[in-house]
Amino acid sequence: MSGSATDTIAREVTSMADLAQAIVSLARAAEKRRGARADLVEATDTIAKAIRKELRTGDHVQVEKYPSLMVSYSGAPATPETVTYSAGRVHSGPLKWADVLFRAGKILGLPEDDPDARARMVWSDESGRNCLPAPVEERQAFVHEAEAVVKAFRDLLDAQAQKFDESARTATKLTPR
């Protein structure tokens, strides 16, 4: 074999080894991303379930959406966009209802006791409307909004408690003795 042919084969072998190394590196990066995504889903579902546990179906609040726009397209200060969080219920079958937290209509806090829960792509809410689990981008925004969500729901519950307390005092005064 001539020196030129040997050099060409050597370059191809080196190139193939580099390609194999690059594929292995890609596989590691993909696995790392899958693991990080699974951790994000688990963490956000845990937070959502803790919030939902304290709410009644139908409770809802609006908070400033993340990321917030600082300046409008016209150059004037932007009006903050809001996003709605609500406590609801979804089902994937006639007897499998789950309490969840919705962010802009996307589901957070699916049950862990159902191993296929997250694999199902479509759930239905109480009105029969199809609902989807929150994608990664919604979950990332939820992480940044979670503190405001908790505060907004706490304010809602405090206001309701005060209203109920006032109504109870009024009813007590009306009760014959």
What does this structure look like?
The protein is of the alpha+beta class and 177 residues long. It has one domain. 50% of the residues lie in helices and 17% in strands. The protein has two helices and six strands, in the order H-E-E-E-E-E-E-H. It has helices spanning 3-52, 136-174, and strands spanning 60-64, 82-91, 97-103, 106-108, 123-125, 130-131. Strands 1, 2, 3, 4, 5 and 6 form a six-stranded antiparallel sheet that branches. A hairpin with a 5-residue loop joins strand 2 and strand 3. Helix 1 packs parallel to helix 2 (136-174).
Main features:
6-stranded antiparallel β-sheet; 2 helices; elongated; 177 residues; alpha+beta
Number of domains: 1
Total DSSP E strands: 6
Uncertain runs are none
**Helix/strand order, N-terminal first:** HEEEEEEH
Structural class: alpha+beta
Average pLDDT over all residues: 86
The rounded Rg comes to: 26 Å
Tell me roughly what share of residues is in helical segments: 40-55%
Largest sheet: 6 strands, antiparallel
The number of distinct helices, counting runs of at least 4 residues, comes to 2
How widely separated are the two ends? 114 Å
What form results from the Cα inertia axes? elongated
What proportion strand? 15-25%
